[in-house]
Specification:
Largest sheet: 4 strands, antiparallel
Distance between the termini: 69 Å
Oligomer: single chain
Strand content: 25-35%
Radius of gyration: 21 Å
Shape: elongated
Number of domains: 2
Helix content: 10-25%
């Protein structure tokens, strides 16, 4: 008759593998977030994938708890990372010019 501890170990292996799979998936899908605020009050949230930095997305504030995707920003992708570029945000009418050390984009606030 098999030992109870070996049965428990055999039953735990698939659960451990599933846990490790989701842990790696979460780490791979996580993003770096940077909040950049304009002097007049509007601000944007910039996300960049942590793996190679080739995916940058910009979100504008929709309401107190939600963001709305505004645009992709391939101009800011890669290295150095957006969080290391000392970005600044301006406010000109309905547009928010985002200027970073190695690139610039214009973000529309149109609803």
């Amino acid at each position: 008759m098999p030992d109870i501890s070996s049965l428990a170990a055999a039953a735990a292996v698939p659960y451990l593998a599933l846990f490790l799979f989701f842990a790696v998936l979460t780490a791979a899908m996580a993003s770096d977030y940077v909040k950049v605020e304009a002097p007049g009050g509007p601000w944007v949230l910039i996300t960049q994938d942590p793996f190679d930095g080739d995916s940058v997305d910009i979100y504008t504030r929709h309401d107190d708890t939600h963001f709305r995707w505004s645009r992709s920003a391939p101009e800011l992708a890669g290295w150095p990372r957006v969080e290391d570029q000392n970005c600044s945000l301006g406010a000109i009418g309905d547009e928010l010019p985002l200027t970073c050390r190695f690139g610039a984009v214009v973000i529309s606030q149109g609803r």
